[in-house]
Write the structure tokens for this entry.
Amino acid sequence: MQCDIGLIGLAVMGQNLVLNMADHGFRVAVYNRTVSKVDEFLAGPAKGKSIVGAHDLKQFVAQLARPRRIMLMVKAGDPVDEFIDLLVPLLQPGDIVIDGGNSHFPDSQRRYEALKAKGLSFIGAGVSGGEEGARHGPSIMPGGDPAAWPAVKPIFQAIAARSDDGQPCCDWVGEGGAGHYVKMVHNGIEYGDMQLICEAYQLLREGLKIADLSAVFAEWNKGPLNSYLIEITAEILKKKESDGTLLVDKILDVAGQKGTGKWTGVDALDRGIPVTLIGEAVFARCLSALKKERTEVSKHYAPPSAHCTATSAQIAQALYASKLISYAQGFMLMKTASDENQWKLNFGSIAQMWRGGCIIRSQFLSKITQAFDKNKSLPNLLLDPFFIGEVSQCIPAWRTVVAQGIQAGIPLPCMSAGLAFFDGYRSEKLPANLLQAQRDFFGAHTYERVDQPRGKFFHTNWTGTGGDVSSSSYNA
């Protein structure tokens, strides 16, 4: 009997996805570059299941039913291209290559186009949920060749997580690199969520001196902040060492990162979209890495004498408002990318895909789905009635917390960036008029006037000696 799908790469995510597929009645072929891993997997977790192994790619491909569906769960970058190059001579027109790793979306776009030219289909599928999600139901964000989606849809939607209303957390995202683009923004929002939670943790611990932080986060998880990351934070903050001390206190305050948050920030800069909160979250990790320098600098500057007097309820509201801003920025970025690439992203569906299985799953994602279902051309979540109400009621506490944190010397890069963005976005008038005057003064870059139609540019000879010739106007 031939297999429904094949998977290459038997690390933790690959193994768990295979077991998930087998649990849902699919017959799966597996291959790994280190062939001994295939035998170990078949003799171990895969024993007795509808999983067959192969010791070379030719045997692996021969075990698959047409159209062949081959999922790569290997390290992003060159390994993906290397396996594709090895597979292509063994495949036939209509066969499908699926990249389930954390690939950069331009690479997925390039692979989609290259395989299409050979008569093959490519799907770049972002997979979120970690080890547990892969085993029991991840969020899957597939994009690439739409003609290949019907052949993959039954498998992916069967193994995906389910939201509270029973909908699979997997649907078609868009053509080309769209799937991995949405996964990239998901990860960027994840960076923001995690940093915001860390800022709330520091406010509670150093500002309010609360001893049982686990109880605070567990209580927060019962309200609007209900989410996977708040839930696991409560668990982390009650984990103790054998001597009774908290494990989190033994962990070095230096954060790692794999690049997806950085990609989101760089892409936002390239597109001119102010995804400030995610950018600050990435820089916060970079700052944490400067441990030696931070330790030295701390010896030369005394901390402020002021103390944070905000309440835990106010901190919760500040965290919630900042989180809403992060999502609003993320969807702004996806909207711009969708328009520029003609992906026609369904934002309500994307929020639905994130409601279960993935790391950023949270209670209010259903409200994002509702917002875009009501208004598919909604330019920004901050214009939806629900979000207007939620943000508005948090503003007093949000301002208090950020001000109190600054006075107490507690760094709040994401909460303050979120608030600064909000204040800029809600302002009808910004001081960019002065900025444009400066640019025109030193570089003859021109400006528009409030009493003239948009698109009409002017230059002033500010000193009387600068001349009347202006530079061409452009945005970079």
